[in-house]
Amino acid sequence: MKIALVILAGVVVVGGAWVYARREAPPPARAVRVARSTVVQALLTNGRVEALDSYAVNARAPVLVTKVLVQQGDLVRRGQLLAEVDDQAAREAVTRAEAELAIARADRHLVERGASAASLADLDAAIGRARLNLESARQEVSVLQRLVEKQAVPRASLQEQQLAHRRAETELAALEKKRSALLGPEDRERIAGRIREAEAAVAQAQSALRRLELRSPAEGLAYFVALRPGAFYNASELAARIGTVDRVRVRVYVDEPELGPIRKGQPIRITWDGLAGQQWHGTVERLPAAVERVGTRSVGEVLCVVENPGRRLLPEATVNVNVETGRGENVLVIPREAVLRQGGDAMVLVVNGEGVVARQAVRLGIYDTTRIQVLEGLQEDQVVLLPGERTYAAGEHVQVQMGPKVGT
Length: 408
Hints:
Elements: H1 2-24, E1 28-33, E2 35-58, E3 63-68, E4 75-76, E5 81-85, H2 88-113, H3 117-149, H4 155-181, H5 188-211, E6 214-215, E7 220-225, E8 232-233, E9 238-255, E10 267-271, E11 279-286, E12 291-294, E13 297-307, E14 318-335, E15 340-342, E16 345-351, E17 357-367, E18 371-376, E19 383-385, E20 399-402
Parallel strand pairs: 1-20
Antiparallel strand pairs: 1-19, 2-9, 2-14, 3-5, 3-8, 4-7, 5-6, 7-9, 9-13, 10-11, 10-14, 11-13, 12-13, 14-18, 15-16, 16-17, 16-19, 17-18
Helix pairs in contact: 2-4, 2-5, 3-4
């Protein structure tokens, strides 16, 4: 009986000592040391690529495309023809106007030399030949019309003969007009007026012909081509877009609360899901002038210029954007999770050499995904507590369990 009581008393003493020791042992606490490192603060968002210099190719007159000469993605020269069009009527107008001008200039030479019996005879003979040519052309057109209706000859042959018929008409009319107007030197001014009118008609016809042309206004990439063979385009209708893409502009969409750190000249990095693993680099060129609604977002449009070697980053592509909004070299850093917020103030829990906890106000700087810069309040190698399963009070003793170096 006495032995049992002794054993029981011993157990009670040992248990009480264990409980006392357990109660007095300081609680464990995760911690890190304040270290120096490089911190890069970045904003992640999206954007859209644009050609740095973009030129629209619009139809300048109603036009029918017969053949497309470039494809989307082709590099083109300034003035390069992008498509062939149906311009037969315009070319015929140029031919008629040039014929009128040639006759008017020939009349001027006759007037300057003065009319003679020989020149009049030559002119009458030319009129006779022109009438014969006109009648022959008229008969040929009539024959070809019947053959075309029977599908015996191609329509192109008829169109060619119709053009010859119109030229014969023009030539005869001009010769007859010349014969009636051939009076002498006193009519020089009238002839000069005819020449000016004919020159104006030629210039107008040539201008109308040029307006049908679809040419590139600059050297660059044809990054949009709407041209299709057989398609009709009204005046001002968009046919293509040409852009310079050795460098491109990226229109970056930054949410309103994140606009504050954005500055002109900040470096940016671009990635594109269309070419995984490749990066492009540039800088912020222009800050937003206003905040606008884009879908459900309220954003400012930040314009950036990006180098595009190989021209692989394409206009209109949607890209991922990393804007470097801050960089600190060899600065004091702590984990972001170590910062406590109280109202508008920031503080941390520091532990001294005896393991005693104290509150310390800090002033913070830039940050990355896991770390934040300390501008004031801490020194290198000080021990800072990290959040744990429990909270710690100032003056409490803790058993520090050091984590990985925060600067790495």
